[in-house]
Amino acid sequence: MMDTALEEASSPMLNQKTPIHDTPQASPKPYKKGFVATLMEAATLKSTPSFKEDSYFVSNLRSSEKKALQELKDKIPSLFSSENGASSEAPSMWGISLLGGDDRADVILLKFLRARDFRVNEALIMLLNCLTWRKEFGTETILEEDLGFKELEGVIAYMQGYDREGHPVCYNAYGMFKDKEMYERFFGDEEKLKKFLRWRIQVLERGIKLLNFKPGGINSLIQVTDLKDMPRRELRVASKHILSLFQDNYPEMVALKIFINVPWYFSMLYSMFTPFLTQRTKSKFVISKEGNAAETLYKFIRPEDIPVQYGGLNRPSDLQNGPPKAASEFTVKGGERVNIQIEGIDAGASITWDIMVGGWDLEYSAEFVPNAEGSYNIAVEKPRKILGHEEAIHNSFTSKEAGKMVLSVDNTVSRKKKVAAYRYVVRKCNNI
């Protein structure tokens, strides 16, 4: 026997229903903010309209904005002219020359203008300072460096997948630094802190490399920050450095900031900060309290791209097999039991599946039901309670006879609706 094809079975039924697919739906003056203050600001944004990313089409700009862009473009060449004693090397960022009329350069310049509310001189100063910093920091070669942070890859800060609109997603979680030994290893002195900051910039540059820098293209990232177990006091210095570097040198690079596992006390203090926020700043923040990570992330990111620890189906090992297989999404209402029926499984075929219900705390089981009359159903996974912190289930089964697989999730003891997702692959085997 051998595998001859990878085939999906016919569309499964969820209580005879088609799976539900959720469809996701002027710059502030710059000033320095502490990390805690930034998160408290975020807590004000529960009902704020979603951020609308700039298209970067010059034709869509107001006349005053077009004028500001042209004025900035006119000022740059003279500052890099050898006649003025300056370097004659043409300024560039991310491999894009800021001179010569490239529309990708317009995208970058508009980011700096937007960050300074289209005040040309302030945007120019910010741009020049950023160019100086990038040269001194060595950002053009940073992706080639091995900084020795292998154990932090995929744990502390990492790029993984895309949102529903195609933005690269960067995940951040600093909970492991609550361990004093870990904290000392990476932040124990100034040299260690500098090395960590360099690694953090490397992660960001890795994400920026995925951007289009084209009008109408994908020109910013999504950031997901997990606040669970985050040691606020210990990371205060590192956080301020990270925020300062990002704020000064990566303007308008983030389209959305999603905070998950947010402690209750940030919400208690949010009203104090509302008067100091612009509508644009508010619209970039999304807040999810502890236990609601999956429900929040599903609105913006497909489940196959969300890490399993946050209610998704994506495991690090999946990336070795190319793009993740698409998942089907559905909801489990309070008081409801949902049966997912995967039919068309031939004798000798094997089926592999992943299933996740955000926040679980319900009963799950898997059963193979043969087509032949008189055959016995096989309990592949006996009914068991899945706790809220558990990750997606990954399992497989090889059938001896034709039939269907039934995955059951029982939410009858709860009144809370939950988001869920599953995917499967059937491998048919033929005798040869």
Automatic annotation (TrEMBL):
<keyword id="KW-0131">Cell cycle</keyword>
<comment type="similarity">
    <text>Belongs to the patellin family.</text>
</comment>
<dbReference type="InterPro" id="IPR036865">
    <property type="entry name" value="CRAL-TRIO_dom_sf"/>
</dbReference>
<dbReference type="InterPro" id="IPR036598">
    <property type="entry name" value="GOLD_dom_sf"/>
</dbReference>
<dbReference type="GO" id="GO:0051301">
    <property type="term" value="P:cell division"/>
</dbReference>
<protein>
    <recommendedName>
        <fullName>Patellin-6</fullName>
    </recommendedName>
</protein>
<dbReference type="Pfam" id="PF03765">
    <property type="entry name" value="CRAL_TRIO_N"/>
</dbReference>
<dbReference type="GO" id="GO:0008289">
    <property type="term" value="F:lipid binding"/>
</dbReference>
<keyword id="KW-0132">Cell division</keyword>
<keyword id="KW-0472">Membrane</keyword>
<dbReference type="InterPro" id="IPR011074">
    <property type="entry name" value="CRAL/TRIO_N_dom"/>
</dbReference>
<keyword id="KW-0446">Lipid-binding</keyword>
<keyword id="KW-0963">Cytoplasm</keyword>
<dbReference type="InterPro" id="IPR044834">
    <property type="entry name" value="PATL"/>
</dbReference>
<dbReference type="InterPro" id="IPR056794">
    <property type="entry name" value="PATL1-6_C_GOLD"/>
</dbReference>
<dbReference type="InterPro" id="IPR036273">
    <property type="entry name" value="CRAL/TRIO_N_dom_sf"/>
</dbReference>
<dbReference type="GO" id="GO:0005737">
    <property type="term" value="C:cytoplasm"/>
</dbReference>
<dbReference type="InterPro" id="IPR001251">
    <property type="entry name" value="CRAL-TRIO_dom"/>
</dbReference>
<dbReference type="Pfam" id="PF25099">
    <property type="entry name" value="GOLD_PATL1_C"/>
</dbReference>
<dbReference type="InterPro" id="IPR009038">
    <property type="entry name" value="GOLD_dom"/>
</dbReference>
<feature type="domain" description="GOLD">
    <location>
        <begin position="294"/>
        <end position="428"/>
    </location>
</feature>
<feature type="domain" description="CRAL-TRIO">
    <location>
        <begin position="144"/>
        <end position="318"/>
    </location>
</feature>
<feature type="region of interest" description="Disordered">
    <location>
        <begin position="1"/>
        <end position="29"/>
    </location>
</feature>
<dbReference type="Pfam" id="PF00650">
    <property type="entry name" value="CRAL_TRIO"/>
</dbReference>
<dbReference type="GO" id="GO:0016020">
    <property type="term" value="C:membrane"/>
</dbReference>
<keyword id="KW-0813">Transport</keyword>
